[in-house]
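User: Structure please.
Assistant: Input sequence and predicted structure:
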Amino acid sequence: MNQPENIGLCATCCHVETLVSTRGSTFYLCRLSLTDLRFSKYPTLPVLACEGYQPPAERERERE
């Protein structure tokens, strides 16, 4: 199982979608990549720096 330190910022980013294959592999889809070409669809892990990173709580405040 992947530990947060092996994933980096994606582990706590509100833009990540975690996908698990039928074989049990886990992939981290950056949803920002769907609208902004600066972001990789499946970034190389661990992600240590990212302009689009937002913790979940920050995203919730934007919706209010």
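The helical segments are 4-7, 56-63.
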